[in-house]
Amino acid sequence: MRAIRYDSYGDLSVLKMVEIADPRPGPGEVLVGLKAASAIPADWKVRSGMLQDMLPVTLPKIPGRDGAGIVLELGDGVDYASVGDAVCVVAQHAEDGTYAEKIVRDQDSIVAMPETLEFGEAASLMHAGICAWICLVETADLKADARILVHAGAGAIGGLAIQLAHHLGCHVTTTCRAANADYVTGMGADEVIAYDRDDFTAVEEPFDIVLDLMGGEVHRRSYDVLKRGGHMVCLRAAPFEDQSERYGVRISVPHIHDRKYAIEAVAKLARDGVFRPQVARRLPLAQASEAHRMMEAGKVSRGRIVLDIA
Ligand SMILES: NC(=O)c1ccc[n+]([C@@H]2O[C@H](COP(=O)([O-])OP(=O)(O)OC[C@H]3O[C@@H](n4cnc5c(N)ncnc54)[C@H](OP(=O)(O)O)[C@@H]3O)[C@@H](O)[C@H]2O)c1
């Protein structure tokens, strides 16, 4: 099969298209023929070597956390899927990923692809959906009428977080570029603060929950808009200092796992029409380095770059 792989950490030039042997499914595993993968920010951060301490990988490494395709072969004892099923797959950074024509996954790391989606949309959904679901449902236990601030609402995770919080009956405020205001409103945001024009700390009423997908300076200033006793849920985007005690708030940095119940929850939300996948751009697998270049340059907005796999 063909795959995008790197043999050492480094810049874009380490990403190479290679021809390698097909993986074979063992007991409890399935072989999936991938139709699409998505490129997520951590793919380039891991590739560059900057996350070696936190997310070490075994080299050579095929990147890619999520994808979608067709089940080609079953290992012994598989009872979740049949040959020919359309499925979404997730892979951890430590494993070989989805920038490939085929992948072997444990049957607990696949889920039936929502019939409402095509392969590219499905590939864009899973990792961002799991992040939004773990942050807002599993970690924040978000309830109707809560006031939530979602930072980076025009990003892949932020967009799905807006959709989920809106669905749960919350009052949703989000930050994005002024040019993306209509886009985030269309996903369910009640109020929009343009980070390139306005200061989000100028809001009059503080929030119960802040979803911090930025870290750094945005994290530091977010304490000022959180109610005392409020909850800030953060993904590691840029380093930040925990000041929760000083402000009398709670901070959580959830671990993003891929347990079966989480991927099933995301697929169900898509099936129910709550999660509408956001695809920013489509490129052929051979142009994976262009996807990394765009992510590294901060040029990706309004969802994921999807890599189509012929
Ligand atoms: N386990 C973990 O710790 C974990 C897991 C998942 C993700 N993450 C991190 O979480 C971050 C978000 O992931 P993602 O996949 O959603 O990224 P993404 O799709 O690339 O989204 C980036 C978004 O950030 C927005 N943005 C840039 N500067 C901003 C600012 N000052 N205020 C508000 N928004 C701003 C941009 O909005 P505009 O387009 O409007 O400019 C852009 O849409 C990444 O850094 C990722 O590495 C960490």
CATH topology of the largest domain: Quinone Oxidoreductase, Chain A, domain 1
Task: State the order of secondary-structure elements, H for helix, E for strand.
Answer: EEEHEEEEHEHEHEEHEHEHEHE
Number of strands: 15
Cofactors and ligands: NADP nicotinamide-adenine-dinucleotide phosphate
User: Looking at the chains present, what oligomeric state does this protein adopt?
Assistant: single chain
**Main structural class:** alpha/beta
Number of helices: 8
Tally of structural domains: 2
> In percent, how helical is the residue content?
25-40%
Can you describe what's shown?
There is one protein chain. α1 (41-48) crosses α8 (288-296). The longest helix has 21 residues, at 119-139. The protein has 2 domains: 2-117 and 277-308, Quinone Oxidoreductase, Chain A, domain 1 (Alpha-Beta Complex); 128-252, Rossmann fold. The chain is globular, with a radius of gyration of 19 Å. The strands form 3 sheets. Strands 3, 4, 5, 6, 7, 14 and 15 form a 7-stranded mixed beta sheet that branches. Strands 10-9-8-11-12-13 form a 6-stranded parallel beta sheet, sandwiched between helices. Strands 1-2 form a two-stranded antiparallel sheet. By secondary structure, it is of the alpha/beta class. The protein has helices spanning 41-48, 119-139, 156-167, 181-186, 216-222, 244-247, 260-271, 288-296; strands spanning 2-5, 16-19, 29-39, 66-74, 86-90, 102-106, 110-112, 147-150, 171-176, 191-194, 207-212, 226-234, 250-252, 279-284, 304-308. The mean pLDDT is 97. It has 8 helices and 15 strands. Bound molecules: NADP nicotinamide-adenine-dinucleotide phosphate.
